[in-house]
Amino acid sequence: MSTEPIRLGIVGLGAMGRRVLEVGLDHPRYAVTHAADLDPTTVARLQAAHPSVLFSTTPADVLEADVDAVYVATPPATHAALVVPALEGGKAVFCEKPLAVSAADAEAMMSASAGRPTAVNFALSDRLATRYVEQALADGLVGDVLGVEIRLHFPVWPRKFQADATWVAGREQGGFVREVFSHFAYLTDRLLGPLSVVQTRLDHRDGASEASAYGLMLAGDVPVVLTGSAGAPGPTTYEWILRGSGRSFLLRDWRELFVAEGHEWVPVELAGEEGSEYSRLSLFADLIAGRPSPELADFAAAQRVQRVVESFHEQR
């Protein structure tokens, strides 16, 4: 096994790109050598803070650089134009979710990915809660799966950490169905199998992204229901509920897991590594070394999620 660090380039230095930059710089299996963003102010600020990295306002400078892997953290409509040439240039690619907006872009990325290490950064792919529920299902503790409920609410959209990403507020690439529901669609696909869409509805206000969303899907014969809203009073809500005849599970706020065997939710004490950009970069390094893991989402899973997510927008 090679002991040389993986030379990593980053395209897109918004919230997620900056996070991976910081994590990658501290990760012993990586050497972040190149990074690019279209905003010259962002580039200048980060160049001053990290002089060992070659920064640019031209993404091609990363795609054409002598790097082993590229992390793509740009708006989803731009993914294919960056991912495909990176793959064709012989690089491994770790891409932000959602994989794409259009079916044609997703298919182009899938075709280019053949034989190359590729992954998508779904935050729930290696979380302790995901692994715990997955094991409970495998052990038969859930019993018959009766349904899944996904509940999302955002009093303000975009969320504060994404306020500078204007595209997140728009219909064409943004909205909470793409940005947040996609994570829980992935989780459901991972644990119960691919989703088929029965009915969807999106409501918009003032030409912006969705104000409310409803979806009825099936994972096999298990009903999966999404209810989501943005722009109304009330606390921010991230909830995924698995209803079983033996046990039910509630995942709240990405990390908090509860179990019910009777009438009350009881916290589950989770022990071990939580799951983070650091751990997913480790899994991506393993993938590059030829050791894939089910705890890292691949392009095929991301394409299935993309189809479900975009079915909401096709009904508008």
Automatic annotation (TrEMBL):
This is Putative dehydrogenase. Keywords: Oxidoreductase. One of its GO terms (molecular function) is nucleotide binding. Residues 6-113 form the Gfo/Idh/MocA-like oxidoreductase N-terminal domain. It comes from the Bacteria. InterPro entries: Gfo/Idh/MocA-like_OxRdtase_N, Gfo/Idh/MocA_oxidrdct_glycsds, NAD(P)-bd_dom_sf. Gene3D superfamilies: Dihydrodipicolinate Reductase, domain 2, NAD(P)-binding Rossmann-like Domain. PANTHER family: BCDNA.GH03377 (PTHR43818).
